Amino acid sequence: MSPQALADLSSRLPDLRLLTEPGDLEHYGRDWTRRWTPAPLAIALPASIEEVQGIVRWANDHKVAIVPSGGRTGLSGGAVAANGELVLSLARMNRVLGFDAVDRTLTVQPGIALEAVHTAAREHGLIYPVDFAARGSCSIGGNIATNAGGIRVIRYGNTREWIAGLKMVAGNGELLDLNRGLIKNSSGYDLRQLMIGSEGTLGIMVEATLRLTDPPPTSQVMLLALPDMEALMQVFALFRAKLSLQAFEFFTDVALKHVLAHGAQRAIDGDYPYYVVTEFDAADERAQEAALAVFEQGMEQEWIADGVMAQSEAQAAALWRLREGITESLAPHKPYKNDISVRIGAVPAFLHEIQALLAREYPQMEVVWFGHIGDGNLHINVLKPTVLADTDFIAQCEHVTKLLAETLQRHGGSISAEHGIGLVKRAYLESTRSAAEIALMRGVKAVFDPNGILNPGKLFV
């Protein structure tokens, strides 16, 4: 790309902030995968919809690829710019634009952090219920681009359930105003839902209208220690039948070891193979007594080996840290991550098969399991041995991921539950989507992005 092309961009948009320093190129050119060497052309930080449109039109004229960028907390390489692309960072478009008390919606720019959305909703006595550990650094635009789920899907569903409207800049620079906050709208295809989960390959999000809801009743948090894998689904079925669950998260003893070493505090004495952090409605003394009765029933059935119920907000936060601190605690070990899902009813059979597969294929590696058992989403983290070169480690993991994808296909599962496909999983898309589906997806991409400038190389091989 010639210097004249960037000069033309600056000439067209004189107020646009452009970064070209090596440190900026490295910072904005990668996400949490750290597997590709960032090599973007430059970093554009627009402050308005008009500047985003101008960038897209310039990119079409000069045949420059664009990588949309939010908080870059992704784990699938969806925000990586390694081939001279222009990174279009939405970090400056990070404001709350409006609140509608009647519709109970919050309109925001895409660069706003999820935690800031939570704060803004609480200021109006409401909540935006999608939540996960990266809330302080991930952006709402990235959440929408991957249809993020998180820890409360069992109660509230995924991101797409909470998007009332979107404004997107398509690949030709045209601004699309999708759904406009309507609750009922049967006037043709719902392009808003098509954009959610599209990983920046169909358009660049410039505004989102979010649905808000009432805060949940007073809740209680409990940590459970389980004796074996079979108990996971038995305890989940018991708690779901008897309590109003907000979350039901599991992790293994190996995960606990790492998060304790990272500074979390042990809450249950002794060592057990599986643990669950669950949160449920407990608005009054009767509800708390019911929860204790359910816990005792699980103990009597020998599905639960031990447990503790939080006695304060601080203790509840400490129990949640045992689950939410896992990803951060594993980061120094350069984990290879699988984010997979199956139907809840298929979880037991799948777990048995996949546990045998991982034990056979990773005899010398530490494998860390955790996830959202209540919605069929499992996270598998393989930790790199220090003696193994990065390239050899990734090659071995990709061999196993191919086997994992084949297993998922037999069980009707997905190779990506909530992280997206990006660069990491594009070779395995056919395990989740049929050839006919992929062909239609490519056709949709060609309509919205006729010159193929939006996040090329992501999603499709």
Structural overview:
The chain has 461 residues and is of the alpha+beta class. The chain folds into four domains: 90 residues, Uridine Diphospho-n-acetylenolpyruvylglucosamine Reductase, domain 2, CATH 3.30.43.10; 116 residues, Uridine Diphospho-n-acetylenolpyruvylglucosamine Reductase, domain 3; 109 residues, Alpha-Beta Plaits (2-Layer Sandwich); 111 residues, Alpha-Beta Plaits. The protein is 35% helix and 20% strand. The chain contains 15 helices and 16 strands. The strands form three sheets. A seven-stranded antiparallel sheet has the order 13-10-12-11-15-16-14, with helices on both faces. The chain has a five-stranded antiparallel sheet with strand order 5-6-9-7-8. The protein has a four-stranded mixed sheet with strand order 1-2-4-3, with helices on both faces. Helix 1 runs antiparallel to helix 3, helix 8 packs antiparallel against helix 10 and helix 13 packs antiparallel against helix 14. The protein starts with a helix and ends in a 13-residue tail after the last helix. 46% of the residues are buried.
